């Protein structure tokens, strides 16, 4: 009887891992369906597989949960999607040097284990969502070379002052407003594109 209970518990544990992996695969597939991929960089992203850990440009931890997306200079275009906020163990989102556009979904602020968010040199627009202030593990934030506008949320400066955020590059965008000297550190790079 005890061995049957143990087998049942193991099956439940395995099933929950598979469901988590499938939900992460579903989130990545939702993004893939919104992207234009002329070089077939995402060809290995097969939603019928048990989990996305065998896909190119995806790194997982020992529990088969996505920790890293490396899609820099991949010639991708399209938006980031809210479903990316479901990748609860994601630590690196590296999508620099593409033609990605649209706004940053507020759901990206759910990625509290994110260490690096590199969106530089794309075509992103709109305001930086205040939800990025939830990224308490963030060390590197590169948003330079886009078309962001509005003001930089004060929550990001709080991450610099109180958190791990060591590099915040938001240069070459179209921000408005004033940043007070007390808000800046050596690693924060803010530049007026008209001054270049």
UniProtKB/TrEMBL annotation:
InterPro entries: Leu-rich_rpt, LRR_dom_sf, LRR_N_plant-typ. Keywords: Leucine-rich repeat, Repeat, Signal. Residues 1-21 form the signal peptide. SUPFAM superfamilies: L domain-like. Residues 22-61 form the Leucine-rich repeat-containing N-terminal plant-type domain. The keyword DNA-binding does not apply. It comes from the Eukaryota. The keyword Signal applies. This is Leucine-rich repeat-containing N-terminal plant-type domain-containing protein. The lineage of its organism: Eukaryota, Viridiplantae, Streptophyta, Embryophyta, Tracheophyta.
């Amino acid at each position: 009887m005890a061995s049957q209970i143990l087998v049942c518990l193991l099956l439940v544990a395995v099933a929950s891992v598979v469901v988590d992996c499938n939900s992460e695969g579903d989130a990545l597939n939702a993004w893939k369906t919104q992207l234009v991929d002329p070089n077939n960089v995402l060809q290995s992203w097969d939603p019928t597989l048990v989990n996305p850990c065998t896909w190119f440009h995806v790194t997982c931890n020992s529990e088969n949960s996505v920790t890293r997306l490396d899609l820099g200079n991949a010639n991708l275009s399209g938006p980031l999607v809210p479903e990316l906020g479901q990748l609860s163990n994601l630590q690196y989102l590296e999508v620099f040097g593409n033609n990605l556009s649209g706004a940053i979904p507020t759901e990206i602020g759910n990625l509290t284990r994110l260490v690096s968010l590199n969106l530089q040199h794309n075509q992103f627009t709109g305001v930086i969502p205040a939800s990025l202030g939830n990224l308490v593990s963030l060390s590197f934030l590169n948003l330079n070379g886009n078309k962001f506008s509005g003001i930089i949320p004060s929550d990001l400066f709080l991450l610099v002052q109180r958190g791990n955020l060591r590099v915040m590059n938001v240069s070459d965008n179209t921000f408005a407003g004033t940043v007070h000297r007390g808000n800046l550190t050596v690693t924060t790079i803010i530049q007026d594109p008209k001054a270049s």
